[in-house]
Input
Amino acid sequence: MKYLSTRGHHDRKQFCEILLEGLAPDGGLYLPENYPMLGKPELARLRAVWQTKGYADLAFEILSLYINDIPSADLLALCRKTYTEAVYGTKDIVPLKQLDDGFYLQALSNGPTLAFKDMAMQLLGNLFEYELARRGETLNIFGATSGDTGSAAEYAMRGKRGVRVFMTSPAGRMSPFQQAQMFSLMDENIHNIAIEGVFDDCQDLVKAVSNDAAFKAKYKIGTVNSINWARLLAQVVYYFAGYFQATNKDEQKVSFTVPSGNFGNVCAGHVARMMGLPIQTLVVATNENDVLDEFFKTGVYHVRGTVDTHETSSPSMDISKASNFERFVFDMLNRDGAKVKSLFGEQLSKTGQFDLSNGIAAALTQYGFASGRSTHADRLATIKSTYETHGVMIDTHTADGVKVAHEFLAKYPQPNVPMIVLETALPIKFASTIVEALGVEPTRPVQFEGIEALPKRVLNMPADVATIKAYIAKVCD
Ligand SMILES: *Cc1c(COP(=O)(O)O)cnc(C)c1O
Output
């Protein structure tokens, strides 16, 4: 299996080459040359692997279809090291919880940082360590976070040989729980940097450092952002695990509703569907930042500016543009790299939007997408009704998913098609909104008792590129 760019570059690369790279040389995103198509016998075989050997071995089977430059025994060992009951708290790793008849939550947030990003990031940490050791290289991950991504990256990379993490975050703007999660890490290779400014200032610093090619090369600067193909691939696995739990025969279909921001999670669902997993509908749920809902309703993709990007109570979905969306558009346009290049490389930067309304209806039927949006009031009402009816506490992002799933099913009933809503975080991460909705504090997993009181390891810095570079240089030299 080789990888190509969504913008038509002629290079074809191996998995491990793109593992440590960000964008393709032409600014596109990497995708496999084709999606391996699984027939009925192959699906039945994977179901048996899931049932008899569990999640890690299922991950190995699916990853093997896309990775041919890591020996099988090594890949299997990496998967088994990553997806353990000790780390995820359950044998099934991603168990379904039934809310109503045919309506489920899929728990993806039982990893170390209590958000679904652990599912991919934990594997990425092990893949990075493996590949860097094989090459005898080191990597300095430099990133910006407003919460979930940064902590997932730090918990994945802590103590890993050959990797350092420099993670900037806007000082005082993350929830106390999120700050405690990140800043209480004492590992030598983890560097928390609180920036005097907002998240955009942090992102600007990352861009400035990435644009300095000499510095980037000298200090081996890399990223772990959501456009990394390995992250997406890791996420494909839990769509299979969800499907196998909700069905008992491979003729049956299921639908998924996915709380979405950068379109990474739901894009993994699209890949699973392209591989032949019987998915009826992929419902994209957004919050007030509804760039994606607008696209799936109108065919117009219109990215927002900073002033039009709302700060919401489901903050990990507060996006102005959806960085993985280009992957789906590439497939939707029958993999026409030149067209994607003109849309994303030219039109979007010039006008801030493009219009695919001509083909959208056909594309939605062919690829099974639907969408909806949710607001703060919806979130509160959904958290409350889910708690009162089922005794289950859900987080704000998952609530966006549950709200949109119900709305979708009311309009387009799908009898005999189970609906699975992906649970993307646990409520404790967003305690203040839970208190607003329910009047009670969310339950806290025991390993997080009292973390706010632990000593913190964090440096405060101005939003100044020279200061940051000097710090990275001092640590690395
Ligand atoms: C990152 C995140 C999302 C959005 O996922 P995308 O892959 O960016 O669409 C949703 N919910 C939570 C809790 C997240 O951390």
About this structure: The mean pLDDT is 95. The longest helix spans residues 117-135.
